[in-house]
Amino acid sequence: MGKKMKDDKVLVCLSGGLDSAVLAHMAGDRLGLCIFFDYGQQALHQERAASKAIADNLGVRWAEVLILLLSLKKMNVKPGKGARVVPARNLNMLAKATMFAQAHGLKEVWFGATADDFDDYEDCRPGFFAGLNRCTGDVSIVAPLIGKTATQIVKMASRYGADLGKTWSCYAPQKNNLPCGVCNSCLRRINA
């Protein structure tokens, strides 16, 4: 077996949450770069810290990218119970990730969409990724967890050695820096 080429490496979109942490560990020696997105999210500081800690633990390069969206309040994205649907968020993130991957000689972008995301997030469904891949040139966008539930992903975490204690899975952190316990992300984690 020959030496792996640089383009065998993958870029992982690393939010600092359960799904992306498992993706980064799944990538193993193919992990070339982790990228974190600041899009004005309420949990920015917690997600950034978790993402950086995961990348540091894996000894991989980490980059932060700012996506200039309108204020989430103006977009009517409200804290509290339920889904946080931010229009075109994943489209923006994956466009930037594709360009970043190409600039670094990486041929795949891995994104943590899961089966649990289908109902609330249209941009986490297989058809979205199929359509997007028709526009990305030499870079493929891959969602390795697309058919998996949170329960299955938690089991995968131990198999791949992902430390879930380093992750952050809450859209609306409380003032005491604790998860809210009622948003979709919290409920997925609690019920997994």
Please render the helix and strand layout as text.
Blueprint: E1 10-13, H1 18-27, E2 31-38, H2 44-58, E3 62-66, H3 89-103, E4 108-110, H4 126-133, E5 140-142, H5 150-160, H6 184-191
Parallel strand pairs: 1-2, 1-4, 2-3, 4-5
Helix pairs in contact: 1-5
The overall number of domains is 1
Shape: globular
* CATH homolog superfamily: HUPs
Tell me the CATH topology.
Rossmann fold
The string of secondary-structure elements, in order, is EHEHEHEHEHH
Strand order of the largest sheet: 3-2-1-4-5
SS field, number of helical segments:
6
Query: What structural class do the secondary elements suggest?
Result: alpha/beta
Radius of gyration: 16 Å
Summarize the structure in short.
The chain has helices at about 20-25, 45-60, 90-105, 125-135, 150-160, 185-190; strands at about 10-15, 30-40, 60-65, 110, 140. The chain has about 190 residues and is α/β, with parallel strands linked by helices.
Q: What does the model show?
A:
- The protein is of the alpha/beta class.
- The chain has one domain: Rossmann fold (3-Layer(aba) Sandwich).
- Helix content is 35%, strand content 12%.
- It has six helices and five strands.
- A five-stranded parallel sheet has the order 3-2-1-4-5, with helices on both faces.
- Helix 1 packs across helix 5.
- The radius of gyration is 16 Å and the shape is globular.
- Mean pLDDT is 87; it is low at 1-5.
Brief descriptors of the model:
6 helices; globular; 5 strands; Rossmann fold; five-stranded parallel β-sheet; 35% helix; alpha/beta; disordered N terminus; 192 residues; single chain
